Amino acid sequence: MERISIALQKSGRLSEKSLDMIRKCGIDFYADDRVLKAEARNFPLSFLFVRDDDIPRYVSEGIVDIGIVGKNELDESGYELEVVRDLGFASCRLSIASPVDFPYEGIKSLEGKTIATSYPRILKKILAENEVNAKIEVLQGSVEIAPSIKVSDAICDLVSTGVTLKMNGLKEDESIYRSSAVLVSKKGFEDPALTRLLSRLDAVMLARKKKYVLFNLPKDKIEEAALIIGGMKSPTVTPLFNPQWVSVQAVVSEDDFWSVFESLRTLGAEGIIVLDIEKMTE
Ligand code: PRT
Ligand code: ZN
Fold first, then answer.
1. Which SS3 state, helix, strand or coil, does residue 205 take?
2. Which member of 10, 121, 149, 170 has the lowest number of beta carbons within 10 Å of its beta carbon?
């Protein structure tokens, strides 16, 4: 099988999780801060470690076959690539934020104002969609200080916890765009090694959203428990030494986990153990 190449962020918010995800696919390679190129030992994949800003261009120009980059960075780059998978990590939002005394009542409040951002392309598109005319002040970083130094009335920047905005005396007015890390390729790129990688990535992502639950339950409650767990072909039920009780094993979606947990407790489940699943297939 021919090797394919992937561009990853060398160091930053995407690096660790990208590497972690690829390692969870059973792909073994060496990478440290000084390494710019690497080859997987047990999979036809080679790596290029670069700044995230360069990844869309490298993929577009065929310098690498695929890459992992924030969706925001891809859309801002203007390159038309295929989003092969949304990997779900490094999620954040692009928000309008302004000083506490700025009266924001929706995006129209930005009419005639100046907005500082590092994402002029995405912002311009959203303003145009909403028929708002505003001046965009492009800054490469530290966008949050722009209003306090009178460079702009408001800002449009990435937010995850919102702490940075608060620390700079800004309020988050409205989130206008969502982003997370995506795996990209050139449009229509296909390769057996990519297919193999994707099936492993899918297994890793599926497992991430599920928990493995084990608990003991009075035998006569098993049908009710099966209903609560839901969405499953059947939980695995094993007899216990005490004939009135059984041991149950099931896979539960992380989103439903707490409601399932509480319902099982109400039903009389005891000794509930919850485990992470490393990999699984549908
Ligand atoms: O050096 P290189 O160019 O490769 O990296 P970079 O500095 O351009 O990017 P990096 O590593 O900071 O971010 C990479 C990607 O992570 C971004 O393109 C986003 O897709 C994603 N991401 C997720 C974030 C955030 N969350 C985030 N919170 N990128 C930046 N931030 C910044 C934001 O700009 C603001 O300054 O964090 C601050 C806000 O954080 P909170 O938690 O206080 O709200
Ligand atoms: Zn960057």
1. helix
2. 149
